[in-house]
Design a protein that fits this description.
The chain has five helices and no strands. The chain is mostly helical and 146 residues long. The chain has one domain. Helix 1 packs across helix 3 and helix 1 packs parallel to helix 5. The protein is elongated.
Length: 146
């Protein structure tokens, strides 16, 4: 995802420079403690805003990030020890299933985000190419070029 995000951020700059976090934060934002809970989402959201058609809701970005953060947090709650009392084993299995569910949801939503942003940027590239190759408007008859 990091390679794709770097490329998507770079492509977004051709359309319009995304607001917010600069290009170094595309990578660093994932690794800086505490900041990594919101920088990646903000970077992806800014790429979405620049790439998407006007008035296109960013709900997939928000849903992906919410599922991703819950997956990370739920994964930290369990200790992975399936020995002990029945209650402890039940708790661990429940946490594991919930963790898997949010992990699968986060992965599916990340796929949707990647697919949509890529599609938006491909459409923007076609529009920019058509605008660049459009014939120039003819000059009015009788105009003086000087």
């Amino acid at each position: 995802m990091l390679v794709w995000l770097w490329q998507a951020r770079t492509a977004a700059e051709v359309i319009e420079v995304p607001e917010g976090w600069g290009r170094p934060w595309v990578i660093a934002g994932w690794f800086v403690p505490v900041l990594n809970f919101w920088i990646p989402r903000n970077v992806v959201a800014s790429v979405w805003r620049v790439s998407a058609p006007p008035l296109r809701s960013a709900w997939p970005v928000n849903a992906w990030w919410a599922a991703f953060v819950v997956w990370i947090l739920v994964g930290r709650l369990g200790d992975g020890d399936l020995t002990g009392t029945v209650g402890h084993i039940h708790r661990e299995i429940t946490l594991c299933v919930v963790d898997w569910a949010f992990g699968i949801a986060a992965a599916a939503l990340a796929s949707v985000v990647v697919w949509r942003i890529t599609r938006f940027q491909e459409a923007q590239a076609v529009r920019l190419a058509q605008a660049a190759t459009a014939p120039a408007a003819p000059e009015p008859v009788g105009s003086d070029p000087a």
